[in-house]
Design brief:
Strand content: 25-35%
Number of strands: 12
Helix content: 10-25%
Radius of gyration: 21 Å
Shape: elongated
CATH architecture of the largest domain: 3-Layer(aba) Sandwich
CATH topology of the largest domain: Rossmann fold
Oligomer: single chain
Length: 257
């Protein structure tokens, strides 16, 4: 039984027989996309973990792409009806859009078991453990026999628009050069499964010999890494033409470590 952002008003905090609960089926997986409090934020979905697997994409409260200005959202690619509905309940409706995308991407939407979304943004819950990570959506039940604890909270990020799945990589860059400069570093990943766009991994003071770590939520499952593109920019004309390179770049896949 899959709960697509089960309702909060009049249901949250009620006994199990009133609302969706893990006792309702042999396997209950839940996608929480609109779990901000009803007042003052008008969240339609409940926040407590109630299934065998509870997924909180993007933290479960505010979905990327739902903060667009009302006009651009109402005159949506999918038509005015879809856009108007999204404007009113965009976060809530993301749950079924993620679910339908999950059917097309069986390897997508990996959920990382974590204490909170804040911890997920650090290195504390990366990569997946040896038994793997469950996939949010249609293929969540592949994980059925692997659940060891009462409630499993899972976190992941998604794209702003369809197609929604993203694949998480940890990128560690050690810089080389003569002296520190200010600016930013972008990295693009190339692999057997496809290539990513440029993702910013460092911004601020770039210090040679220092090592920087960042996460990339890539729009493609790159498979085996074949190449990494490194670019840096300091956004200003500098007559001394400082040079900066990468001594090493390490890419770690969240899926298999």
């Amino acid at each position: 039984l899959s709960g697509l952002d089960p309702a909060q008003p009049y249901f949250q905090g009620t006994p199990p027989e009133v609302r969706l609960d893990k006792s309702d089926a042999e396997f209950v997986d839940v996608i929480h996309t609109d779990s901000a409090p009803t007042i003052p934020y008008l969240g339609f979905g409940m926040s407590p973990a109630i299934g065998h697997l509870d997924f909180y994409p993007n933290g479960g409260k505010q979905m990327p792409g739902c903060g667009k200005n009302p006009v651009s959202q109402i005159v949506d690619l999918d038509g005015i009806w879809e856009g108007t509905r999204d404007f009113v309940a965009c976060n809530h409706l993301r749950s079924y859009k993620y679910y339908s995308d999950s059917i097309i991407y069986p390897d997508g939407f990996l959920g990382y078991s974590c204490a909170s979304y804040d911890v997920f943004e650090t290195e504390g819950c990366f990569p997946c453990p040896k038994e793997g990570c469950p996939n949010m959506g249609h293929f969540a039940d592949k994980f059925k026999g692997k659940i060891k604890t009462d409630f499993v909270k899972l976190y992941l990020n998604t794209g702003e628009v369809k197609d929604f799945p993203l694949w998480r990589y940890k990128v560690t860059v050690t810089l080389s050069g003569k002296r520190k400069v200010k600016g930013y570093v972008n990295v693009a990943l190339y692999g057997s499964g496809g290539n990513t766009r440029q993702h910013q991994v460092i911004k601020g003071t770039l210090q040679p010999d220092n090592t920087y770590t960042s996460f990339i939520d890539a729009e493609v499952n790159i498979g085996a890494v074949t190449k990494v593109k490194f670019l840096w920019n300091n956004n200003r004309i500098n007559p001394t033409f400082p040079k900066l390179g990468a001594a090493t770049i390490t890419v770690q896949s969240g899926e298999n470590g």
